[in-house]
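re: ur msg from earlier - yeah i can do the pyridoxal-5'-phosphate complex, just paste it... oh wait u already did. ok heres what im feeding in:
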Amino acid sequence: MIPFLDLKHVNKPHQSAIQTATERVLTSGWYILGREVENFERQFADYCQTKHCIGVASGLDALTLVLKAWNFRADSEIIIASNAYIASVLSITHAGLTPVLVEPDPYTYLLDPTKIEQAITERTKAILPVHLYGRCCDMRTIHTLAQRYKLKILEDAAQAHGAVYGENRAGNLGDAAGWSFYPSKNLGALGDAGAITTNDDTLANQLRAWRNYGSSQKCVTDYQGYNSRLDELQAAILLAKLPLLNEENSHRRALARRYLFGLQNPDVIVPSADQIDQDVWHLFVIRHPRRDNLRAYLFDKGIGTDVHYPIPPHHQKAYASLAHLSLPISEQMHREVLSLPLNPSLTDGEVTYIIDTINEFSKEP
Ligand SMILES: *Cc1c(COP(=O)(O)O)cnc(C)c1O
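and the outut:
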């Protein structure tokens, strides 16, 4: 059986570094907001080439806190792709704002750059590009529009650790970026963890206080803040794993390349191949008109797959207020997308078997 994702295997090469890191935290006697978080923030900011990194408790918190800090009027609109992950949409409504869903490009799965401008109204305050599956959105277009209409840009980089666009890395492509280090992400902790990267000093100072009750120094409260801290243990684990991120991303790219050029089944649509070396391939997502049949067939052949995501945000019970929207591209994608195994512990031989098995599918009854 080839599992879709086995985190035990993914973390195996990091095991001794993680053990050293956790031992260091245990014996330090200091578990919240200390040296590990400071070191990780500095190293991750350097990695993203941003001035600041602020560790927080999760990716959802990272996005929500930035949107709240921007303090937009309550009826403000935020533009986001209609196939975004639900957490990206939740951050908008948690900040008391209105998501405006724009259809994705069906080959990149990202916010369609030709459809953004028509969604802008006088209430639009920001664009929230989600670098879905590990590929950066069309930031040139997004920057042009942001400048023309005076909009903020909040990247959702939770699937794009190390992804590149032009001269810059994800996390340094807008006014601020939200990160998640959920265990399955390209850079994953052993629990919940998140961060914000930004070059904005004022925002960074405010968020640093906000994550810790609104205190900039012990027992001095400047804001009515939150408790959303990255803990020392997770920070130490992330510090242990960060040095291998580029190597793991390269391995993901090599596997993605095999899929892109090896999958020859005429019914299978592969993602666009124009960004192989910039994309970090958090997920390798194909489309097939009989997705559920293909998925069951692969399961019978010992291949685990997953669906990211089965239900579009506007069809979720939590968003009944968006249920009237007609978003045919996104709806079709949610019926057709299938995520194939792709992670640093997957072998070349396993990929060959997966490709051959999918290429045989049309011949099945
Ligand atoms: C994982 C993820 C999030 C949420 O991160 P959590 O740490 O689980 O809160 C947000 N957006 C995207 C695109 C994600 O993949």
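cool cool. The mean pLDDT is 97. ping me if u need the other ligands too
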